[in-house]
Write a structure and sequence with these properties.
single chain; 202 residues; alpha/beta; five-stranded parallel sheet; four-stranded mixed sheet; 8 helices; globular
């Protein structure tokens, strides 16, 4: 059995990566979605073990010392990390795994998992990005400016990814990502078993 594909999707705050990932998973339910751990407080409507694993800072640091994370990073004063064992378990079964993580975490994963597929989600324009962040209505003017500046820096980091997808509409963005996954699954290096089967028949 061939190993599953590790799919990493990132994007600046306000690009709609959460919405895109939910739509992708609804259309490709066979993909395992890796839930991140975080030390930030749950937002309204969020449930532990669904959107995130919500941990105390002490618990998070304990797991770091035990090597329990594929990657972790501190973002806006909170820790975020990707639990390792679940990812390994599903990849070994030949299942594709989706990580929705920030650019800091993704750069760490690139070092550890160079065979992964890294997709950066872009807004149609910086003006649209600013509008999306502002329209959330959850940010003060100061934090709005901080997030917008951070978003521009993240977009620069996005140039290190393999694929760039503009989220002009969710449906169009998801179709592009599905095409990327299909193409990656057909790469020769991911299909040695097919070649072996053909050679054995001859």
């Amino acid at each position: 059995m061939e190993q599953g594909i590790l799919i990493v999707i990132s994007g600046a705050s306000g690009t709609g990566k959460g919405t895109v990932c939910k739509k992708l998973l609804s259309e490709m339910p066979e993909i395992y979605y890796s839930i991140s751990a975080t030390t930030r407080k749950p937002r309204s409507g969020e449930t532990d073990g669904v959107e995130y694993f919500f941990l105390t800072v002490d618990d998070f640091k304990q797991k770091i010392s035990e090597g329990k994370f594929l990657e972790y990073a501190e973002v806006y004063g909170n820790f975020y990390g990707t639990p390792l064992y679940k990812i390994e378990e599903h990849l070994k079964r030949g299942e594709n795994v989706l990580l929705e993580i920030d650019t800091q975490g993704a750069l760490n994963v690139m070092q550890k998992c160079p065979e992964g597929v890294f997709i950066f989600l872009l807004p149609p324009s910086l003006e649209e990005l600013y509008s999306r962040i502002k329209n959330r209505g959850t940010e003060s003017e100061e934090t709005l400016q901080t997030r917008f500046s951070a978003a521009k820096a993240e977009i620069e980091i996005g140039k290190k990814y393999q694929y760039a997808v503009v989220n002009d509409t969710v449906d169009a963005a998801v179709e592009k990502i599905k095409s990327i996954i299909t193409a990656e699954s057909l790469k020769v290096q991911r299909n040695e078993n097919i070649f072996n089967a053909v050679e054995e028949d001859n």
